[in-house]
Amino acid sequence: MMPVIGGRLRLGESMQRHTSWRVGGPADRFYLPDTLEDLQGFLRHFAVPPLTWVGLGSNVLVRDAGLRGTTICLANTLDQIVLAENDLLRVGAGAGAVKIAHFAAKAGLAGAEFLAGIPGTLGGCLSMNAGAHGGDTWSLVEWVEVIHPHGEIQRLAPQDFQIGYREVHGHGDACFVAAGLRLIPEESTAVMQRLRAWQEKRAATQPLEWPSCGSVFRNPAGDHAARLIEAAGLKGKARGQAEVSSQHANFIINRGDAQAADIEALVEDVQTQVQQQFGIRLQAEMRILGEAKHG
Questions:
Q1: Residue 295's pLDDT band (boundaries 50, 70, 90)?
Q2: Which fold, 208-289?
Q3: pTM of the model
Q4: Which residues are catalytic?
Q5: Which residue from 81, 127, 144, 270 lies 20 to 30 Å from 137 (Cα-Cα)?
């Protein structure tokens, strides 16, 4: 007999609902587990490859023809945060980075304030070593738990991975499901003040009123992508309803009904112009997923 597995499986789910750019075609099979046990059972019995893992969809561009196989969304499901020890948080991969920052601050733990500037989940932060304000995710990590494509859970240490600037290698086809974050005890009010100051700065400098993926490009060594894009005269450049933000040049915003193809073309335009003018090929932070429409 097949096991009873909780969660929700949707067919032909529009990825516009699950990406912060509000673009993307349908996912053939879209699964949201209720528990880790649900996820294990689903992987063992029902998942159709290839597998695509998403959280809040803030660091991905899903193309207009969508995603084949099975897309698994962990956002707002594996999102529990627990104070496991005096200064160690056990955090599910589906927990939002902003939620983690506030939990830590209220618990009187410092070191995670920079997460308040990252619009993704812990899983996404771990997969790309997301950072802001001089902090990065893996500097906090004591251990991680990953789930393999057939449902096995494995606990690993940071030294099991190759960790760099906005990239992490070594987990293969496995997906992060939890992590232990080691923080520093500090008076809660002081931590919260820093967190709020960084959030206020973000609100003042980034185009948060428009759909975007956050920063599009990595900062090249010794420089800033936003400076190069602005110096190339690209603020306000558009493809359809996709536009390089006039407020922050490293943001591409959706001003209405942009298509993923518009955004992808604009990314390539920016890369080409910056390389022609400054000899630097900007590398995208976000991942491009799925299939483009043809014809």
A1: low
A2: 3.90.78
A3: 0.94
A4: 166, 215, 285
A5: 270
